[in-house]
Amino acid sequence: MIWHFIAVGCGGFIGALLRYEVSTKLNRDRLPYGTLLVNSIGSFFIGCIIGSNLSLGWTLFLATGVAGALTTYSTLMKEIWMYWAEGRKFQAIGYTLFTFTVGIGLAYLGFSL
């Protein structure tokens, strides 16, 4: 249905702008705080949405659109790879484990609420 595409597109527009704003403000240090923050917030948000009784349209808008564009798997992989390529393997592994542990935990917490 066309409305589903519109819902995802509009939500994606909002999520992408939010991610860009957070990333440009917080990813200036050696640690990618902006990426960690948007992925953590997005994980919690997706858990809340999936755990609710929202209609398909709202779920597509909020989870697939906003949260899907807010979170960034590709940037996460780039950051992990850069740590690895720079010889900071311990930091790459730690960042990976921390990000996925926090993300899964926050998604579960959001779902449970």
UniProtKB/TrEMBL annotation:
Subcellular location: Cell membrane
Topological type in the membrane: Multi-pass membrane protein
Residues annotated as transmembrane: 6-22, 34-52, 92-111
Keywords of the record: Cell membrane, Ion channel, Ion transport, Membrane, Metal-binding, Sodium, Transmembrane, Transmembrane helix, Transport
Keyword field contains Transport: yes
Family: Belongs to the fluoride channel Fluc/FEX (TC 1.A.43) family.
Name of protein: Fluoride-specific ion channel FluC
Record organism: Sporosarcina ureae
